[in-house]
Specification:
Radius of gyration: 16 Å
Number of strands: 9
CATH superfamily: Ribokinase
Order of helices and strands: EHEEHEHEHEHHEEEHH
CATH class: Alpha Beta
CATH topology: UDP-N-acetylmuramoyl-L-alanine:D-glutamate ligase
Distance between the termini: 25 Å
Strand content: 15-25%
Helix content: 25-40%
Length: 257
């Protein structure tokens, strides 16, 4: 049976991030993608110029409609807009379902996508239900309340927020080698890789999280799902399409060539 993945996220009119990136990624990796839209964003490669939030009850209704009929083998969340949406999503999701939470707080271009109350709601309500959270370095610093100097220790600290596992992404780090850290009850595993010099990095976080969610939905172990997702994202950056004048999108369809 095809692995079913539900993405709960915002819509990106430029097609590079959000539910558009999730749909492309899940499909490319062999899953069946479904969505619950949390917001309509007005954006392109140059940035986000406006956001229209979807009412929390409509977000929750989308989730319940999909789960009551088609079902899901994993849920992935991205942009959740506000504390009210975070709580609505948490209440709509059944316990025990694999859940990948990408704590989207700021767009690639610097636009705030989640208010402070929403960040608190993530920590209090959604993280304890999460199989995996995938913060980047700025998001992790916001969640922990301090600057990060040791990625492995920061990943351990994030585990204390109640999730089963953490993938701390190192893409915002400095140097020629960037390291992601996967932490769970068994310890911390580093994933170092050479930096890719590219402006086509819009939607990398969305793509990585949905790729991992697809792997988990297909029955892969956490480590195997992370490894495949990282390879998929790296190749999508390396073969990017050079579209737009700003932070361009990835090549989500590279597996088809």
């Amino acid at each position: 049976m095809t692995a079913r993945v539900l993405s709960v996220a915002g819509s990106d009119s430029g097609g590079g991030a959000g539910i558009q990136a999730d749909l492309k990624t899940i499909t490319a990796l062999g899953g069946f993608a479904m969505t619950a839209v949390t917001a309509v964003t007005v954006q392109n490669t140059l940035g986000v110029s406006d956001v229209f939030p979807v009412p929390p009850d409509i977000v929750a209704a989308q989730i319940r409609a999909v789960l009551s009929d088609i079902g899901a083998d994993c849920v992935k969340t991205g942009m959740l807009v506000s504390a009210e949406v975070v709580i609505a999503v948490t209440e709509a999701l059944p316990g025990g379902m694999p859940l990948v939470v990408d704590p989207v707080m700021v767009s690639t271009s610097g636009r705030a996508l989640l208010d402070e109350a929403g960040v608190t709601a993530l920590r209090t309500h959604l993280f304890p239900k999460a199989t995996l959270i995938t913060p980047n370095l700025p998001e992790a610093e916001s969640l922990l309340g301090h600057a990060i100097t040791d990625g492995a220790q920061a990943a351990r600290d994030l585990l204390r927020l109640g999730c089963f596992a953490v993938l701390l992404k190192g893409g915002h780090g400095e140097g020629d080698v960037l390291t992601d850290y996967l932490a769970d009850a068994d310890g911390v595993r580093p994933f170092p890789a050479p930096r890719i010099d590219s402006r086509s990095t819009h939607g990398t976080g969305c793509t990585l999280a949905s790729a991992i969610a697809t792997g988990l939905a297909q029955g892969m172990t956490m480590t195997d799902a992370v490894e495949r997702a990282r390879t998929y994202v790296r190749r999508a950056i390396e073969s990017a399409l050079a579209l737009g004048s700003g932070n361009g999108p990835l090549n989500h369809g590279h597996l088809a060539h």
